[in-house]
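Example (one chain per record):
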Amino acid sequence: MTKIIIEVQHFEGCPNSAEMIRRVKKAIETLQFNVEYKEILVETSELADKLKFRGSPTVLINGKDLENMEEPEEGNLSCRYYKNGIPSAEEIKKNILNHSTEY
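Predicted structure:
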């Protein structure tokens, strides 16, 4: 099985960042395959543009957005809005498992 790379992009001061990081880590701890976890602190608009940042917090699974949000033309150095609130650890785990079957 291919290794799954989970990346949490965020910036200091966004109220949902710490909770999203906690939920992602909880989702990962029960998985039975190799996961590489990264946290990317986005501190400048230049880095936001380079990463095509969708807002804080953003979770990428092998480069694909957790909720399939398209890459913006320019990075968005703001807090991200999740229509149904930030996903639960169980929802994140299901999404990781769905991405893992694509390989």
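Caption: Residues 61 and 88 are 16 Å apart (CA to CA).
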